[in-house]
Design a protein that fits this description.
Blueprint: H1 2-31, H2 37-42, E1 54-57, E2 61-65, E3 72-82, H3 87-93, H4 95-107, H5 111-114, H6 120-137, E4 146-154
Antiparallel strand pairs: 1-3, 2-3, 3-4
Helix pairs in contact: 4-6
Protein name: Flagellar protein FliL
Pfam families: FliL (PF03748)
Subcellular location: Cell inner membrane; Cell membrane
C-alpha cells in the first residue's frame, strides 16, 4: 500500500510540474505580447477576397452588312465581363484593335446570318474568341470571361 501511495504521489507531482510549467510558459508568452489570447482562439484565418466580375461597356458600333439587293446596317452595343481589375485600362488602350476586329468579323457576315436570334450565342462566342486572340497577339492581358451583346439592331 505504501508503494502505491508513493507512486501516486510521484504521478501527481509530475502532473503538477507539467501543468504549472505549461501555464507558466503560456502566461509568459501572453504577457510579453508574443501571444494574444483573444486572437489565438477567437480570430478567423484571413481569406483573400475573390475578385468580383465587372462589366465594361464598349462604345456602339455601326457596321455595314452586305445584303442580296442592297447593303444593311447594324447597330451593335456590347459589354465585356472580366474578373481582372485592370481590364478597363487594357480595353481603353486596345480599343482600336477591338473595334477593327469586330468590324472585320461582322462585315464578313450576311444579313441572313445576322438576322436570326438563334445565332446570337454563336456570335457572342465567336466575338469572345476573336477578342481574346487579338489581345493575346498584341501581348495584352486577355482576361475576358464573356462577351454580351446588349443591343443589336439590323436595318
Amino acid at each position: 500500500m505504501a508503494i502505491l501511495k508513493s507512486r501516486l504521489v510521484k504521478i501527481i507531482l509530475a502532473l503538477l510540474v507539467l501543468i504549472s510549467s505549461t501555464a507558466g510558459a503560456f502566461w509568459i508568452g501572453t504577457s510579453s505580447g508574443d501571444w494574444k489570447l483573444a486572437e489565438l482562439f477567437a480570430s478567423e484565418p484571413e481569406v483573400e477576397p475573390v475578385p468580383v466580375a465587372k462589366f465594361y461597356p464598349l462604345e456602339k458600333f455601326v457596321i455595314s452588312i452586305p445584303g442580296d439587293k442592297y447593303p444593311h446596317y447594324m447597330l451593335l452595343e456590347m459589354s465585356l465581363k472580366s474578373h481582372n481589375p485592370n481590364m478597363k485600362t487594357v480595353l481603353l488602350e486596345s480599343d482600336p484593335l477591338i473595334r477593327n476586329a469586330m468590324m472585320k468579323m461582322f462585315s464578313r457576315k450576311t444579313f441572313e446570318q445576322l438576322n436570326h436570334l438563334d445565332q446570337l450565342d454563336s456570335l457572342q462566342s465567336e466575338a469572345l474568341i476573336l477578342m481574346v486572340k487579338v489581345l493575346s497577339d498584341n501581348k495584352l492581358p486577355s482576361d475576358i470571361d464573356e462577351v454580351l451583346f446588349t443591343r443589336m439592331v439590323i436595318q
